Amino acid sequence: MARLSSAVPSLAADEAGPPARARILAAALAEFAEQGFAGARVDAIAERAGINKRMLYVYVGNKEALWLAVLEGAYAAMRAEERALNTLHLSPLQGMEALVRFNFRYHVQHPEFITLLNDENLQGGRNVARSDAVQDIYSPLLALIGDLLGRGQAAGVFRRDVDARQLYISIAGLGYFYCSNRHTLSSIFAVALDTPAALRAREDHVVSMVLGYLRP
Amino acid sequence: MARLSSAVPSLAADEAGPPARARILAAALAEFAEQGFAGARVDAIAERAGINKRMLYVYVGNKEALWLAVLEGAYAAMRAEERALNTLHLSPLQGMEALVRFNFRYHVQHPEFITLLNDENLQGGRNVARSDAVQDIYSPLLALIGDLLGRGQAAGVFRRDVDARQLYISIAGLGYFYCSNRHTLSSIFAVALDTPAALRAREDHVVSMVLGYLRP
Amino acid sequence: MARLSSAVPSLAADEAGPPARARILAAALAEFAEQGFAGARVDAIAERAGINKRMLYVYVGNKEALWLAVLEGAYAAMRAEERALNTLHLSPLQGMEALVRFNFRYHVQHPEFITLLNDENLQGGRNVARSDAVQDIYSPLLALIGDLLGRGQAAGVFRRDVDARQLYISIAGLGYFYCSNRHTLSSIFAVALDTPAALRAREDHVVSMVLGYLRP
Amino acid sequence: MARLSSAVPSLAADEAGPPARARILAAALAEFAEQGFAGARVDAIAERAGINKRMLYVYVGNKEALWLAVLEGAYAAMRAEERALNTLHLSPLQGMEALVRFNFRYHVQHPEFITLLNDENLQGGRNVARSDAVQDIYSPLLALIGDLLGRGQAAGVFRRDVDARQLYISIAGLGYFYCSNRHTLSSIFAVALDTPAALRAREDHVVSMVLGYLRP
DNA sequence: TATGAATGAGCCTTCATTCAT
DNA sequence: AATGAATGAAGGCTCATTCAT
């Protein structure tokens, strides 16, 4: 992601903590996740980052560039974690379960990722569309799914008429919706959705949903 | 949805089109759906509605009240359509398929509903939590699901360990995510997701996912 | 004060309470006294009066005309009460004391009069200057003071070098300031100024101040 | 008046005139004095101060904070002048006369102070009540009056039954009312009240009123 | 005589951004 | 590499007033 031009202040941690640009991005991520793009305040980001507002423009450019950088960072972080997931040594069933659980937990642990995606889609996905960094990074999970599907079908434990990409979207959607809409769902059903018990129940349901569907 | 207090101008459609309050709500729905709450402009809403900005405050109150009214309206509209769906005369399998297809299509045809929910959840669901109108309206679909599950299980065509609410969330999520994130997904996969063919493929996938899972 | 042209709705009390114009003026008096001219709201006046806002413009004209009418009414009311005060049959000393006490109590009982005058002076007194009704109504008190001074000096109980108008302004000022600035004085001195005891003490002080000064 | 927090732009007078905050307060004082709180316009204050309107909110906060700051400044300025008045070396009679003349002239020369107080009282004195700066600053004049009264009574030149606070209020009121209501009084009496001659006459009257009253 | 509906200008406040050092 | 000061444009909301009936 070498995005830093030489005209930009070096990354040498000068006084304390991470370098300025990283602090800015972290602050922006937090602010954007809480308020959305339109609701986020540049002043708030600068304050969160503990820097002068002016530096924000030096390091990143403007609010929109900030959004793009944060979005790319969020995607990159997710892809990085996905890449760390290795199911190649697991049986198709065990591998698929691991993958589903991983995906669900990622959503639970990264609500800011969900918020960002929602807001980006609200904007018509125009930033993602313009981003070189995001566009050509294929989700590693998709490859894993393909591998697991192939092995499972060969072993006769998975049904045959399964589209990998559709399955990927389904796995993601089963967790995403639960997390994204947890506040409204919680209000309407008058149930807490973010207790450990509730999260475990949902995770198990998603697993049995996917595996149940995949039965031959 | 009789929301009109007597302190508000009458609804007598005098000259053209729907009465003022309805026009305002329609305009607000469009603006909010496109821009989100923070991004929406009251001026833009007034202009869309073809009324003086001042009237907006007479008829509804303020931006937040406008949001709440729009949100309640969106929920009410969905519930109304849901109520029109009748699967009681269908077999469990056919009924469940109909229900899934209905839900998927609703998401496709009402992207504004998705946007509203996303933004409401961004705000922590505080408006829904405060709304009398929304809070106690249970989704009719949930009742239908319960009925279908019961009949299907009795007939031996559905598995037994199924939680109706989890299933409802899953059915919704399978369509919601696809629609909500269509722009980013489309960018990343470099595929159009809103062509008739793609939509049909997705709908079929969701159906077979749900029914596949429900097999005993 | 017959200011009503024939083009204006008759004063016939139609349904209940005083006729509309009187209700409007009473409401305006209350609102202006509480908020001042700039702070007063025409809507609030209409609501207080229990009439449609439009009528306010029919009966009086506009906010400024309303102010003038209220101001004239306040002056007229004061003058009417002043006229009722008769000290001609009292001794100079008793008469002067009665006059001073009357004036003090009027201020206490009519805080709205004070507020109106303050605001009118804030505006440079331009309404009073334009008002036929106010301008030529001389304060009856001034005449009484002249009479009392003359009799008292003749009787040798009052000093001789007294200007009636200056004395009038002093008598008024001694009560006015206490009432007008009661909130700030009360804060600064940390004492309640509007208790019956405090008011009595002040009234007595003013009396002894005036009579003490008038001693030969 | 060291009211500047470190979060506020420095006072280094860079180009011309007093620093920004002082200019803002001066402009606000002028505007508030002319229009009252409700009638004052933030835009007008900014323009008078020769600054961008936005800075006003950076330096002071908002309209209400501006009012409070101006009010505190006005009190502080008056107290400062009062403190400079020294009557300890004067005889009771001379000292009392000096004090009365000083107070009268202060009102004449600071009509904005009167306007501020009137408007603050219109608001129920809520800002003064909240202000730490104003609340505990006792008027130095009151102490002087106490001293003069004591010495004068000991010397037998002042009457004995005098309440210092009542006398203070009276002295203030005798000048305040004349100044505060000069426009309406001038209209009603058809006399100019702000000519040097008229002011001198009034001042003399107030002096003889107070000293006349204080005779044993 | 009375009313509900409408309006344009203006108010206080805040925004993202840039200047000057 | 960094900062305090500044700015024009706009944002939500409210005002006094008038229209149409």
Describe the protein in words.
The structure is a homotetramer of 216-residue chains. Chain A is mainly alpha-helical and 216 residues long. The first copy, chain A, is built from twelve helices and no strands. The first copy, chain A, has helices at 20-39, 42-49, 53-59, 63-84, 92-109, 111-122, 126-130, 132-135, 140-155, 164-180, 182-189, 196-214. Residues 1-8 and 10-15 of chain A have low confidence and may be disordered. Chains in contact: A-B, C-D. Chains C and D meet through helix 1, helix 6, helix 7, helix 10 and helix 11 of C and helix 1, helix 6, helix 7, helix 10 and helix 11 of D. The first copy, chain A, binds a DNA duplex (21 and 21 nucleotides) through helix 3.
Helix amount of chain A, in percent?
A: over 70%
- Compute the CA-based radius of gyration of chain A: 20 Å
Count of alpha and pi helical runs of chain A: 12
Give the topology string of chain A: H per helix, E per strand.
HHHHHHHHHHHH
Estimate the strand proportion of chain A: under 5%
Which structural class best describes the helix and strand composition of chain A?
Answer: mainly alpha
Give me the count of strands of chain A: 0
Low-confidence stretches of chain A: 1-8, 10-15
Largest sheet of chain A: none
Shape of chain A: globular
* Assembly type: homotetramer
What gap, in angstroms, lies between the N and C termini of chain A?
Answer: 42 Å
